[in-house]
Design goal:
The complex is a heterodimer.
Chain A (H helix, E strand, L loop, with lengths): L1 H23 L8 H29 L5 H6 L10 H4 L5 H22 L5 H29 L3 H14 L11 H8 L10 H14 L22 H9 L1 H5 L6
Chain B lengths: L1 H26 L11 H4 L2 E6 L5 E5 L8 H15 L5 E5 L12 H10 L1 E2 L26 E5 L7 E6 L5 E5 L3
Parallel strand pairs in B: 2-3, 4-7
Antiparallel strand pairs in B: 1-2, 5-6, 6-7
The chains are: A mainly alpha, B alpha/beta.
Chain lengths: 250, 175
């Protein structure tokens, strides 16, 4: 039971940490100053969530690993984040599509997690929910602005959606870890979010004059450590300091 | 027995006055990003206790989980309490109940406005995907304002602009 809980918290932490790292790559490179600050702020929220989750995972594991060890000293196959969050930033439309798909899932996810029997997860959820609401609004506004914008912005937004769509199915995947913890009242059943997610996405795409792709092939594997080729490169950069100077503290 | 009771009461009295003194010190520590507000004004200071080992335990809660000011709050609390003679201090971060802008007092909202930051409007709740907000310009009082960016100079603020006096300003986001 403890092992399952540890694995579950780690997934949530990995999702947040990896998306935070990706968004952080925009710092100093975003299309406008406001967006530079905006993306860095969203990154900061995700990194804050990751820190709380990694610290808690370390406590549950009980082997003395802290947030830094869990984030910076695990190998590629040990990470269990979903594939969506590790996808490269691409152009601004791809970054926005990735954020929109993820936040449209995480807002109802954290809302439900507030009722978890695990008090720490419920407490983290109560904070993260408020942040997710902002992330969803920010990314949804951009989806509409770009989709309902110029010919080129619409085309790029539509391309980004098509590119990332196959990675959205994994958000709703429930393996044995999730199923057992859902039965225990600890985890959120991702299937219970599907309708709300589709409704949010459909509504925003409608306003953005964008096409909703057909259901179809879902690329999965992240939860069991099978990542896309981009992931190793991300870790190389993210973990450099702890690998080069083990035990480094600020 | 009577003597024991009396000394217990005396001890409780001492603990209470130590606690009050520590609270008064902690309550004066200000937010480094918004130096007109104290941690007490913000509702970030949740509790001050005297632990069994005599240490002062201070509970603080982050506005946003990734708020980078938490480290500074902790350092400043330790420094100020040490100056007041409390050598053994433990600052703890608590997440529950989740911080909300509703905890910012009316007096603190007025201080924010005077400082040039528009205070959060209304009560916090999970709003519709695209909520319509009216934010009042902290400089000229006009409601003819527009949002420039959802995210401002810190995690807790958004960037707005007044269409009347043309001043850009920070808005303390309502969460």
């Amino acid at each position: 039971m403890k092992d399952l809980l540890f694995a579950y918290i780690l997934r949530l932490a990995d999702d947040a940490a990896i998306l935070g790292q990706r968004l952080g790559e925009w710092c100093g490179h975003a299309p406008t100053l406001e967006e530079d600050i905006g993306l860095a702020n969203v990154a900061l929220d995700h990194i804050g969530q990751a820190r709380a989750l990694y610290s808690y995972a370390g406590e549950v594991e009980g082997k003395g690993r802290d947030e830094d060890q869990l984030c910076f000293l695990r190998k590629e196959r040990e990470f269990s984040n979903c594939l969506l969050v590790e996808q490269p930033n691409g152009d601004f439309a791809e970054t926005i599509a990735r954020q929109f798909f993820f936040s449209a899932f995480m807002l109802p996810f954290w809302e439900k997690m507030k009722a978890s029997k695990d008090e720490t997860l419920a407490a983290i959820a109560a904070k993260a929910e408020k942040e997710a609401a902002y992330h969803l609004r920010h990314s949804a506004e951009w989806v509409i602005r770009l989709g309902d914008g110029t010919e080129e912005s619409r085309e790029r937004m539509q391309d980004a959606i098509e590119l990332l769509w196959p990675f959205t199915g994994e958000l709703f995947e429930a393996d044995d870890t999730v199923k057992v913890l859902v039965a225990e009242g600890v985890a959120v059943d991702p299937a219970s979010i599907r309708d709300e997610w589709r409704e949010t996405v459909g509504k925003v795409f409608g306003q953005a004059t964008l096409e909703m792709p057909e259901e179809g092939w879902a690329q999965t594997g992240g939860r069991s450590g099978m990542h896309t080729e981009h992931f190793g490169h991300l870790l190389t950069e993210m973990q450099y300091m702890q690998r080069a100077y083990p035990g480094l503290k600020w | 027995m009577v003597i024991a009771m009396a000394s217990l009461a005396e001890n409780q009295g001492k603990t209470q006055s130590l606690r009050d003194k520590a609270w008064a010190v902690a309550a004066k520590v200000v937010d480094p990003e918004i130096p007109v507000l104290t941690l007490e004004d913000l509702g970030v200071l949740r509790d001050v206790r005297v632990a069994d080992d005599g240490a002062i335990e201070v509970d603080i809660t982050p506005t946003y989980v990734g708020c980078p000011a938490m480290g500074i709050f902790t350092m400043d609390l330790e420094t100020e309490l040490a100056k007041a003679g409390f050598d053994n201090v433990r600052v703890k971060t608590v997440l529950s109940p989740a911080w909300t802008t509703d905890w910012i007092s009316a007096k603190a909202r007025e201080k924010l406005r005077e400082y040039g930051i528009a205070p959060p409007e209304g009560k916090a709740s999970r709003r519709a995907l695209f909520g319509d907000e009216t934010v009042t310009c902290p400089r000229c009082g006009s409601e003819n304002t527009e949002k420039i960016s959802e995210f401002g100079s810190t995690a807790c603020k958004a960037l707005w602009k007044c269409r009347d006096c043309a001043e850009p300003f920070d808005y303390f986001k309502c969460i």
